[in-house]
Amino acid sequence: MRQLFNGIFEDSGKLLAAGSGRFFNEEIVRVGNAEYREWDPRRSKLAAAIVKGLRNVEIPADSKILYLGAAHGYTVSFLSQICSTGRIYAVEFAPRVARELVMLAGKRSNILPIIEDANQPNLYYHHLESVDIVYEDVAQRNQVEILVKNCNLFLKRGGLAMIAIKARSVDVAEKPAKIFAEAKRQLEEHFRIVDYRGLEPLQKDHAFFVCVKR
User: Fold this and answer.
1) Where are the beta strands (DSSP E) in 20-104?
2) Nearest CA to 53 among 214, 202, 213?
3) What is the pTM of this model?
4) At what angle do helices 74-82 and 95-105 cross, to 10 degrees?
């Protein structure tokens, strides 16, 4: 077994996260007295980016994370174990998946679900503190704009901004490479980009950026 980052490991081609409990029918790997959850890169953009060689994703155990587009909480559940002494503010707007997110939060005390629109951070401003990381996986045309608005309000200077860009949510007719290039240009107006990975074939028409707030 090889450690990649805090709480994140690779073993026999599988990506693993330290921590006990099964939340999404994932495989549990036991090594000695320790348990690890298999992290499927076809279900998580962050896992896919790590498998594709992402470097700048060290997430300390005490990190405070604002997660935009939490859905039912698959990736959130792994971050909650990596950030074992930290806190995950998980924003989701769709009622059906938000119910599953709330159920997950009942099992993981460091997940705080926020049922609001990530495009309107003023609606949940009073729920948050400053955070170390803003992570976005929102399939909307103005993905970069949503990230910028939330980072301006909540991200500490020098903090990390991570975003999974879904090309087909921006423009179904345009070539993904052109959309990713435009996203890079927009991000560079506000951040310093420290890593970029295309996520094919694990995540179709997706790219992943890691940025630092200036």
Assistant:
1) 28-31, 34-38, 64-68, 87-91
2) 202
3) 0.96
4) 30
**Residue among 47, 6, 56 nearest 210 (CA):** 56
Distance between CA atoms of 160 and 74, rounded to whole angstroms? 20
H/E element, 162: strand 155-166
Does residue 124 sit in helix, strand or coil?
Answer: coil
Q: Do 52 and 197 form a contact (C-beta atoms < 8 A)? A: yes
Residues 80-89 as b or e (16 or more Cβ within 10 Å = b): bbbbeebbbb
Classify 213 as helix, strand or coil: strand
SS3 26: coil
Question: Residue 46 in 3-state DSSP?
Answer: helix
Span 72-100, pLDDT tens digits:
999 999 999 999 999 999 999 999 999 99
For the stretch 92-141, pLDDT in tens is: 999 999 999 999 999 999 999 999 999 999 999 998 999 999 999 998 99
Structure tokens at 49: 């980016």
Domain covering 40-213 in this structure, CATH number:
3.40.50.150
DSSP strand pairing (206-213 vs 34-38): unpaired
Which residue in 32, 2, 31 sits closest to 14, CA to CA?
A: 2
What angle is formed at CA 181 by the lines to CA 180 and CA 185, rounded to 5 degrees?
A: 115
